[in-house]
């Protein structure tokens, strides 16, 4: 308990409150707590309710009233995953090996003869199976996480362990997402016009998600006595590099793992940047979601989004096993 | 090995300032080298990932040609933007715009309107989500609720969802076949079409209300978690003392808790506001209000007016950076972790 005077910064000034509680005061004593609790529950319902409704609805054949109707079916899922044939053939996530047959094969225009156009006989395309393309998206996000690790862990250590001029500024730059995704996308368009989308996306992901990695790793570093650990290891003969790689980094395991998981999930679903930058090659997962949301029937879109919900649910369970509360670690900027 | 064995070039490099950073001779110098080595990957990523692209973006915003090769210098895009912004100002706007614009006539205030939309809508959603965030963080930190860890997990769940999914969640709740739309339609006996908040024409009250909830869906979790960090640092002894001395819960909150969390609230307002400005996916799906980020999409994908888009992006970027840094620096704002 702090002594009076030591807490001057937070000292209460102004009039002394009335001794006799007012009507409002009595009401707050009576109902305030239930009111705040109710608001808390309503908020959670607002945030989680639609997630559950979407997931449940994706298994139904029809949904027009308050509740889904019709029988249970896996059709929406099959269509969203591209396993089942659909009218208008959803291209889904395809792209890496997508081959769409041309309508017109070639036009033969010889002198003295009528123009001869050869049509391709079938309406036909080949595309990557969706689980495969999804896997590619997963890999893209993993590459982003790999760069985040190489970049984020050292910078987090530098600003937590050492004191130097510009430390605060560097810390702010590392933990605040300075550039919004859409601005970065516009900036990328002309800077790296020839860069394959894959590389541009990985570069963008790692830059946009670095704050989450730094924050998560920093919170681990802050719970360690870094100076003492470093000095003990050094005095026992370890070089500074060895100390960093074999003492400091393993000590921050929890932060590093949760940071990686969070960065991976956020990168896999990054939309604003991907939407502007993507031009060719394997499609990012978020664009697959966007196409489903904007073009496809409601229930198929629900199934497509539920794929992502399942991923997030698994990730959340992993984070909770690590001792975090879901995405609450660091990931708040 | 003595320095005599080495080449003179290396010796000369060691004498310079950067040379001493790479080949330090003192413990202080070695420490400096470690810090530099730790920061190098970050600066490399920041340079190639952010700095160079942003410089290029600024360059395009002041170039005469940009389609094939970036050439020439002009301020025309900025002139057009500022003329449009000025035209939006009531009463005197038309005259100022005519004075700024290239043709000498007032231009369409579309950019002024767009920027104004971003600002007022961002402000309203920020204040709302921070208000809800205070209540939720208060409940989570002050009350001994059962399964608190689960509640925190649930509140932070939407942080993992991109804006387009937040928009879909609004369609699930408030769309034509939406859960709440149909619920209230049955209650009030009206048609769902008149109640739905999504899929309405852009700019109508109902559409904006739908977008409002879409923004809140992304912003409440962020505001809550920022405030939770603040609440964790509150001195509970003072609150208990106030209660023991007969203050009502409301008085305790007003006079004891609020002064302590005020810097955290200011910090949360600042960071949540910049989140609100950067939201794009939600607007792209719901198409309810023309905000700056939505305008980018039209400029880049439809018209390909990349110089105007770059100029707008440059203004937007400078505004966010200055706003964030200046307000974090010059207000009582604190961001807890």
A few lines on this structure:
The complex is a heterodimer of chains A (333) and B (337). With 333 residues, chain A is mainly alpha-helical.
List the helices and strands and how they pair.
The complex is a heterodimer of chains A (about 325) and B (about 325).
Chain A: H1 23-57, E1 60-62, E2 69-72, H2 75-80, E3 99-100, E4 104-108, E5 116-119, E6 125-126, H3 130-161, H4 167-175, H5 181-191, H6 197-222, H7 226-235, H8 240-251, H9 253-268, H10 272-277, H11 285-295, H12 298-321
Antiparallel strand pairs in A: 1-2, 3-6, 4-5
Helix pairs in contact in A: 1-12, 3-4, 3-6, 3-9, 6-9, 7-8, 9-12, 11-12
Chain B: H1 8-15, H2 17-22, H3 27-61, H4 76-88, H5 93-100, H6 110-142, H7 148-156, H8 163-174, H9 179-188, H10 192-195, H11 205-231, H12 236-244, H13 249-278, H14 281-286, H15 292-303, H16 306-330
Helix pairs in contact in B: 3-16, 4-5, 4-6, 4-16, 6-11, 6-13, 8-11, 11-13, 12-13, 13-16, 15-16
Explain what the structure shows.
The complex is a heterodimer of chains A (333) and B (337). In chain A, 59% of the residues lie in helices and 6% in strands. Chain A is mostly helical. Chain A has a domain at 130-328: MetI-like (MetI-like fold), CATH 1.10.3720.10. In chain A, the strands form three sheets. Chain A has a two-stranded antiparallel sheet with strand order 1-2. A two-stranded antiparallel sheet of chain A has the order 3-6. In chain A, β1 and β2 (69-72) form a beta hairpin. In chain A, α1 packs across α12 (298-321) and α3 crosses α6 (197-222). Chain B is mainly α. Chain B has three domains: 3-44, no CATH class; 73-108; 110-330, MetI-like (MetI-like fold), CATH 1.10.3720. Chain B is 73% helix and 0% strand. In chain B, α4 runs antiparallel to α5 (93-100) and α12 (236-244) runs antiparallel to α13. The longest helix of chain B has 35 residues, at 27-61. In chain B, 46% of the residues are buried.
